[in-house]
Design goal:
The complex is a heterodimer of chains A (about 110) and B (about 120).
Chain A (H helix, E strand, L loop, with lengths): L8 E5 L4 E6 L7 E8 L6 E6 L4 E2 L4 E4 L5 E6 L8 E9 L13 E6 L1
Parallel strand pairs in A: 1-9
Antiparallel strand pairs in A: 2-7, 3-4, 3-8, 5-6, 6-7, 8-9
Chain B lengths: L3 E3 L3 E4 L5 E7 L5 E8 L3 E8 L6 E2 L7 E6 L2 E6 L8 E8 L10 E2 L3 E5 L1
Parallel strand pairs in B: 2-11
Antiparallel strand pairs in B: 1-3, 3-8, 4-5, 4-9, 5-6, 7-8, 9-10, 9-11
Classes of the chains: A mainly beta (about 110), B mainly beta (about 120).
């Protein structure tokens, strides 16, 4: 499976934008880029996903590099509730098994 | 609102006991998954099922079994609990569409301590 690389941890101030990077240099043409996050004492939750184009939803934006070898999750205005571990995951298209391989993720600390 | 529930948030068992962890989803999803999460190791897939009575081994199935008698329920069984099975157990479900865009919905987790 194609692998992702993320920083172990990041810090950001409350109410400021946060850019969480992810490298996936071995991504294949059919891999989707997914982001999940895990709040303390909870199960992971879906954040956003994309293939080639940048994506926006109510939680975040996903910026995908033109060569698709990296992507950035953008939280436009971080709050204390956004403190979590963020996972960048590649998922193969038409994968019947639908398994998700979680890496170590980035632990995001939000400073008040 | 989508919902995946797990039978217990916290569980304490003794070595050698048989342990049942139950997971129920109300979204009519075909796929269901069991993961365990340990510090420094992230989430690891134990077993998954894409249909009633079907099961597939994940990455770390040893010491575990599963049961899927009804579509909405997926049980994880520890036949003889051991201390190295102390962990956070997470259940998830998703639609079987064959597309990579389907979201997996996770339960709140069961923190199991084996003494």
């Amino acid at each position: 499976d194609a692998k992702t690389t993320q920083p172990n941890s990041m810090e950001s101030n409350e109410e400021e934008p946060v850019h969480l990077p992810c490298n996936h240099s071995t991504i294949s043409g059919t891999d989707y880029i997914h982001w999940y996050r895990q709040l303390p004492s909870q199960g992971p939750e879906y954040v956003i996903h994309g293939l080639t184009s940048n994506v926006n939803n109510r939680m975040a934006s996903l910026a995908i590099a033109e060569d698709r070898k990296s992507s950035t999750l953008i939280l436009h205005r971080a709050t204390l509730r956004d403190a979590a571990v963020y996972y960048c995951i590649l998922r193969e298209a038409m994968n019947r098994d639908d398994k998700i391989i979680f890496g170590k993720g980035t632990r995001l600390h939000i400073l008040p | 609102d989508v919902k995946v529930t797990q039978s217990s948030r916290y569980l304490v068992k003794r070595t050698g006991e048989k342990v049942f962890l139950e997971c129920v989803q109300d979204m009519d999803h075909e796929n269901m998954f069991w993961y365990r999460q340990d510090p420094g190791l992230g989430l690891r897939l134990i077993y998954f099922s894409y249909d009633v009575k079907m099961k597939e081994k994940g990455d770390i199935p040893e010491g575990y079994s599963v049961s899927r008698e009804k579509k909405e329920r997926f049980s994880l069984i520890l036949e003889s609990a051991s201390t190295n099975q102390t962990s956070m157990y997470l259940c998830a479900s998703s639609l079987l569409s064959g597309l990579a865009g389907e979201t997996q919905y996770f339960g709140p987790g069961t923190r199991l301590l084996v003494l």
